[in-house]
Amino acid sequence: MKRDSLSKKIFIYSALIITIAMIISYSISVFFLEYHFISERKKEFPKIAREIEYFIKDNKNIELKNYIKNLKETKDITVLMMSEKEKKWINNRGGSGSGFLMEDLEDKKFIIKNQRLTEAKILLYNQKIENNWISIRSSLSILNYYKKEIGYFNLLAAIIAILIGLIFGKIFSKKFVKDIETLQANTKEISKLNFKSNLEIDRKDELGELSKNIKKMSEKLEVAINDLESFVSNTSHELKTPIAIISSKVQILMKNENIDSETLKIYKTILRESYYTKELISKLLILSKLDVSTSIKRENINLKGLLLKITERYDYLEFSKNLTLNLNLKDIIILTDKELLQIALENIIQNSLKYSQDDKEVKIELEDNVLRIENEMLLDNEVDLEKIFIPFNRGKNQRIEGNGLGLTLVKKILLILDLKYKVYIEENKFNFIIYLK
């Protein structure tokens, strides 16, 4: 299954986050700028009125004139003044305004209206100070112009921010993903029981801590595996040696011409059980070695030649049960571990011969990179395909020699060699198929 790289995802998420942030910023500017502007002006206008009142009461006309001029230049706030007697607004530039009714003036009240001549929308605040009226005004129409400017700058800032964000996101994600890939490669080697990987990642964050923990785990696992290999090797020697001695001594005793039939029967039983124990120990040790095996020795092998060699080895079963071995083998060369594959095939072929009906046919076909082994099952044999790979599960085959570990070995070896397989029963015929890629 094709996977999206983490670097690509980080890159896309970074761009998405920046885009969303800029959209939110632009939306807030467009929809709430005027509201915020009016709110701030409503706080400021009464303060300006108090300042003007201070200048008027102290007759500081020059300071008042400069103050009003400064408001216009720095905050675009216009202040008009009018004496009740003159009934004409005078601004700081010497201009004037008229055409209104005195009775329409309302003290300390905010009004939003359009200018008569320009239709420009303004915020208006009038206040009476002694015998004068002051009118403090600020244009709201200018905000529409500013909104457009802000929009252009937001768009430009968004594009620049996205480009910069993507560049830094790409650089950061590469560095971040590179370290993760290093950890992934190392853990993959550890899963193959290869503990020689370099696990050092010079980081002060969680990834650096993770690499240290993996290194510690790898070192402890290596020690444990080495101890287990040593134990398996020593156990193999300690168990096989006494069994071999018992077998050889019993064989010597059986050659005694004066032995009675009852004693001979006992010797045969001891010899049979010693062979059984020897085979059982051998398979248990193979299973243990497979668990701690650190490498697969792959080589090109002629599978047809290997199958012929195996069938020849077990021809005593073929002859004792009067079986017909039907071989259809094509020349196929595969790259695999010969020793492991031979153990698996020996168990499969031996089983097909042991558990076949007498006087029947056993088929072994090898073509198109598929190995198919088929045998006629015993009539009273019931096989549960879901349990045949469970260790020591022999079902109703107790009367046939065996230890119930053969197919367990087969399954583990095929898994190690990464070979797909299938088993099924059809018309009382047991089929074992291996796909050789």
TrEMBL record:
Catalytic reactions on record: ATP + protein L-histidine = ADP + protein N-phospho-L-histidine
Instruction: State the membrane topology.
Output: Multi-pass membrane protein
Protein localization: Cell membrane
The parts of the chain that form a coiled coil are none
- Family annotation (InterPro entries): HAMP_dom, HATPase_C_sf, HATPase_dom, His_kinase_dom, HisK_dim/P_dom, HisK_dim/P_sf, HssS/ArlS-like
Q: Which residues form the Histidine kinase domain?
A: 234-437
What keywords would UniProt list here?
A: ATP-binding, Cell membrane, Kinase, Membrane, Nucleotide-binding, Phosphoprotein, Transferase, Transmembrane, Transmembrane helix, Two-component regulatory system
State which Enzyme Commission number(s) the record gives. 2.7.13.3
Principal subcellular localization: membrane
List, for all copies, the residue spans of the domain called HAMP.
Answer: 174-226
Membrane-crossing segments per the record: 12-33, 150-168
Q: Which GO terms describe its molecular function?
A: kinase activity
What PANTHER family does the entry give? Answer: SENSOR HISTIDINE KINASE CPXA
Q: What is this protein called?
A: histidine kinase
UniProt source species: Candidatus Cetobacterium colombiensis
Lineage start: Bacteria, Fusobacteriati, Fusobacteriota, Fusobacteriia, Fusobacteriales
